[in-house]
Amino acid sequence: MSVAEPTEAEASDLADSLCGIVTDYPTDNPRTTLQECADRLAANPGGPGRDGLVVILNATSWYAASGRIGASALLEDMAAALRAALATLDPDACDGGHPHAESADWDPESAVTVGTRLLTEEGRGLYDPDEHDLPLEAWTCPKAVAALAAEAVETLAEGLRTMSGEGVTDGLDERYVGPDGRVDVRLLADTVYERRRNHEASAASGLWAARRIVSDVADTPRDRLGVLLSLGLCVSVWHEGLVAPYLPAMEAAIATVDLAAGEAPCPHGDTPHPWSATPHRERLAAVTALFGPEEPSPEALALWSCPRNLTDLAEQCLTDFRNWRTMRMYD
Ligand SMILES: [Zn+2]
Ligand SMILES: [Zn+2]
Hints:
It is built from 18 helices and no strands.
């Protein structure tokens, strides 16, 4: 990576790409853009581009850590570059007497615009304190820049922990499994499906279901069915996809469904099987009804447990997984 200052045209393109990222509408490959910024900082962590790159990496760290980019290597490179920059910064060199740019206060688009402006001598000369309500020192004071770098390192570390799957399902055994060892399928299905209420809980509970399916836990056949149906519900509501650790765990869980068994004739003949026959919006209710206070009829349970029904579910999940991977081919 060249450590030469970007040209004005390059800086302007970079600002456009970064604005796309921080507004969550990337115009081009976010991974490439962020990798370039990380590499640029790593190549010269104490150089003239340092302050701008720290601002840029801070303002985009939430995006990298959010799971929108499935590549942990990028997060590691961003964090390593920021740590290298931190090592060149002496917070005690702040002489006070000026405000500091803080991520809690800034508008992310302004922040990345300022960040790219700081990358070039011409841009630094064009900085207008009135436009951003902050003097230039607010963005270049070593104490301010060190705080931004440290904050971003923490955000990225948190993202890496999440991507590794560490801690994501902590506490969920207690939440979903009663003292009698039975799974609270209604609560699980409701949590994964009602994603709008709590995205994190939906994904984490889907991961819990996936891990439960491949674990050695001997659930009753009915609970096992409930966990699998919950996983299917989870997959169906994550239209934009999930990345590691969710996707690989979910793929492993769905791989336990015997697709060949679903090809064989079943006692239900031409009766449509409920997973594919139930409209999307009615699926949660259909699943929770099976696990309600009242026992379902043996016929209903047999129909839902039929290998053909489970194959329908598995195949729909496999299609979704393929789409998830296609959407994220940048990774
Ligand atoms: Zn200062
Ligand atoms: Zn059947």
